[in-house]
Amino acid sequence: MFSKSATELRPKLPALLEDAAMLYLRIGTCRLNNMAPEKWLRYVIEHIQDWPANWIRDLLPWKVDLSAQ
After folding, report:
1. Rounded distance, CA 63 to CA 41, Å?
2. Can you tell which superkingdom this protein's organism belongs to (predicted)?
3. How many of the other CB atoms lie within 10 Å of CB of 37?
4. What are the residue ranges spanned by the domains of the chain?
5. Contact, 33 vs 43, CB < 8 A?
6. In this structure, how many other beta carbons lie within 10 angstroms of the beta carbon of residue 61?
7. Which of 3, 22, 25, 35 is deepest in the core (most CB within 10 A)?
8. Cα 3 to Cα 30: distance, rounded to the nearest angstrom
9. Is 68 exposed, middle or buried (0-12, 13-18, 19+ CB in 10 A)?
10. Whole-angstrom Cα distance, residue 69 to residue 64?
11. Helices (DSSP H) in 1-69: which residue ranges?
């Protein structure tokens, strides 16, 4: 199922756990703001490529307005 052994993944585990925690936090924030996490994630994926780096905070769940979507 997995192509890498546990010993190969062990050094990367802290970073993987941090990434998972950040995603979980964003999903929870969507729910607290009465926003569907799937819609927010779809919006971010569709817009992030052309989004200015210094405006990246405007893609956080509490900043995005999906009411027109």
Report:
1. 13
2. Bacteria
3. 15
4. 6-59
5. no
6. 21
7. 35
8. 33
9. exposed
10. 11
11. 6-9, 13-32, 37-47
